[in-house]
Amino acid sequence: MSEPTRLENALREGRFAVTSEMGPPKSADPSVIAGKARLLGPVTDAVNITDNQTAQSRMCPLASGRIALDNGAEPVMQMTVRDRNRLALTSDILGASALGIHNTLCMSGDPIHIGNHPDAGVVNDLDTMALLRLQATLRSGHFMNDGNEEMPGEAPHLLIGATAHPAADDADVEIAKIRAKMDAGADFFQTQLVYEPERVAAFMSRLEAADLPSWPKLLIGVGPFKHVRMAHHMRDKVWGVTVPDHLIRRMESAGDEGDTGMDICVEVIRALREIPGVAGVHVMAIAWEESVPEILSRAGLVTARTT
Question: Which of 61, 180, 285, 291 sits between 20 and 30 A of 258, alpha carbons compared?
Fold first, then answer.
């Protein structure tokens, strides 16, 4: 059997976990992933490998994850239900575990019409809840079919991730979704970008009052503004993200926009560390991965890694 992953150990031990994210290239060049892995691996517990993000054709997260692992970063393999049916998803899950990739994240996927193949067929054979159940079933040593077919060999070792939205307008509805995802097999959750930690604190209080069967492991999404245009874009164009006016004004008056953007991210991380129940942060530095080590250094986060 495989040993627990670094992320699995961090969550189990109650350390403040740190994950980040990288996008595979729109080519067959392995050096892109290798370079990002060498940058992010030493400062994180795990790194998300995105799955054709923004519906653009990219190197698959299975191959990218193995390249990342070979270059010092523990991957979280994102899997979208948009592009593959249950047969293909099962194959990817089994293959990933065989190659040492054991962390996953279930997602629906960005709308196909915004990508570089807008006329491609959307699969959606399963929804994200069914993908969680598929992984939990495989982890138990069975296939998710009518006969609950027993697997003839080793079952995959999986740490199963799902998404959550602590800044949702209706906290009760979101808590019900988290409960359902946990029941389906989710071990941890990653969230959309957050710039108002006080909303996370309020949500965590609601979670505590909800009396869930176990405490969900929430990794809260954070990220730096590289420039003021990015702050405006996040405020105006990105679903689920709220950027307060005072942060927009701060970016607009900044002498060094990137440095100020990093400072804002650090301040959010520090605030999140003070909120009981937050399991860690997921740092999304979109097309600016080189900022992540500096952000984590300013935030005082030192990731304990197992070998």
Answer: 61
Q: Domain containing 53 — which CATH number?
A: 3.20.20.220
For residue 188, report the phi and psi dihedrals to the nearest 5 degrees: -150, 170
Whether 304 is covered by a domain: the verdict is no
For residue 124, tell me if it sits in a domain.
yes
Sheet strands (E) in 235-303: 278-283
**Is the CA virtual torsion 245, 281, 43, 186 positive or negative?**
negative
Which pLDDT tens digits describe the chain residue by residue (307 residues)? 689 999 999 999 999 999 999 999 999 999 999 999 999 999 999 999 999 988 999 999 999 999 999 999 999 999 999 999 999 999 999 999 999 999 999 999 888 999 999 999 999 999 999 999 999 999 999 999 999 999 999 999 999 999 999 999 999 999 999 999 999 999 999 999 999 999 999 999 999 999 898 999 999 999 999 999 999 999 999 988 999 999 999 999 999 999 999 999 999 999 999 999 999 999 999 889 999 999 999 999 965 444 3
Within 8 A by CB and 6+ apart from 97, the residues are: 2, 156, 157, 158
Residue 303 lies in a domain: no
* 202 in a structural domain: yes
Cα separation of 233 and 272, whole Å? 23
Number of domains in the chain: 1
Gap between the Cα atoms of 271 and 237, Å rounded? 25
Q: Residue 191: give the domain boundaries.
A: 6-298
HSE-up (13 A, CA, CB side) for residue 280: 28
